[in-house]
Amino acid sequence: MAQRNTWQRDRVRAALSGSPGFVSAQDLHASLRDDNTGIGLATVYRTLASLAASGEADQLQSPEGEAIYRACSSEGHHHHLICRSCGTTVEIQATDVETWAQRTAAAHGFTRAEHVVDIFGLCAACSEAAR
């Protein structure tokens, strides 16, 4: 079922697009609250889930286990390199991972296998700053 385009959905989408990296629903809600939008946390959660389901947003789990979101700039299946310090995110294609995932699934009798691979580390700038 298609989502109705409301002003709240547009504001959440705009706030997500304006975020430099992945952001939690609570952090996004805080920025919307600071702008006095009146948009509730439940609306932010529902909208982010809908944007992720439609492919307009990437959703993944942070190393701490929290769902985080980012406006998606690529179509189709892809992976991310994510800086644990500043949140810089790079979308990557990972052909070797795709091959490994399909081969591993098939070796165990699995079909229609799907996977999620995201790599967390420190970007070059944060690594240099840490030295």
Q: What do these coordinates show?
A:
Fe cation binds at residues 77, 98, 115. Homodimer. It is found in: Cytoplasm. This protein has 131 residues and is α+β, with helices and mostly antiparallel strands. It folds into two domains: 1-73, Arc Repressor Mutant, subunit A; 76-131, Ferric-uptake regulator, C-terminal dimerisarion domain (Dna Ligase, domain 1, 2-Layer Sandwich), CATH 3.30.1490.190. The chain is built from five helices and six strands, in the order αβααββββαβα. Strands 1-3-2 form a three-stranded antiparallel beta sheet. The chain has a three-stranded mixed beta sheet with strand order 5-4-6, with no helix packed on it. A hairpin with a 5-residue loop joins β4 (79-83) and β5. It is globular. It starts with 6 loop residues before the first helix and ends with a helix. The model has no long low-confidence stretch (mean pLDDT 89).
Topology, element by element:
Layout: H1 7-17, E1 23-24, H2 25-34, H3 41-54, E2 57-61, E3 67-71, E4 79-83, E5 89-92, H4 95-107, E6 118-121, H5 124-130
Parallel strand pairs: 4-6
Antiparallel strand pairs: 1-3, 2-3, 4-5
Helix pairs in contact: 1-2, 1-3, 2-3
> What is the number of beta strands?
6
Write the H/E string, N to C: HEHHEEEEHEH
Q: What general outline do the C-alpha atoms trace?
A: globular
Task: Give the CATH superfamily of the largest domain.
Answer: Winged helix-like DNA-binding domain superfamily/Winged helix DNA-binding domain
Strand content: 15-25%
Total DSSP helices? 5
Helix content: 40-55%
Alpha-beta content class: alpha+beta
Termini separation comes to: 51 Å
- Report the average pLDDT across residues: 89
The CATH first-level class of the largest domain comes to Mainly Alpha
Q: Give a short account of the largest sheet.
A: 3 strands, antiparallel
Q: Write the CATH architecture name of the largest domain.
A: Orthogonal Bundle
- CATH topology-level fold name of the largest domain: Arc Repressor Mutant, subunit A
GO molecular function: DNA-binding transcription factor activity; transcription cis-regulatory region binding; zinc ion binding
Protein name: Transcriptional repressor
Keywords: Cytoplasm, DNA-binding, Iron, Metal-binding, Repressor, Transcription, Transcription regulation, Zinc
Binding site for Fe cation: 77, 98, 115
